[in-house]
Amino acid sequence: MRIQDWWPLLDWTTQQWLINNNGDVVPPDVLDQITAVAGEPTADTPWVGDAVPEGFSLSEEAIDWIDMTANDEVSDDE
User: Fold this and answer.
1) What is the 8-class DSSP label of residue 27?
2) Which of 47, 62, 73, 76 is least crowded, fewest Cβ atoms below 10 Å from its Cβ?
3) What is the pLDDT of residues 9-58, one digit of tens each?
4) DSSP sequence for 4-17
5) Where in the chain are the domains?
6) Cα–Cα distance, 5 to 38 (Å, whole number)
7) 53 CB-contact burial (10 Å; exposed 0-12 / middle 13-18 / buried 19+)
């Protein structure tokens, strides 16, 4: 599932955390919220970033998308 598809299903608090901490390691409680709506990520899931020792990270594509969303730069067809 693409980030564009699961983003609207997240609660506002989770969306705000992702916007305010965009690019940071995603804590387990936020990842739980994401997987509750998007399903368990796999290695080829486009919003999954590289494995980091600190924990789960989003892909550069997802980070960029969140940044554009936060700045109201995303069109409806993206």
Assistant:
1) P
2) 76
3) 999 999 999 999 999 999 999 999 999 999 998 878 899 998 778 889 99
4) HHHGGGS-HHHHHH
5) 3-70
6) 8
7) exposed
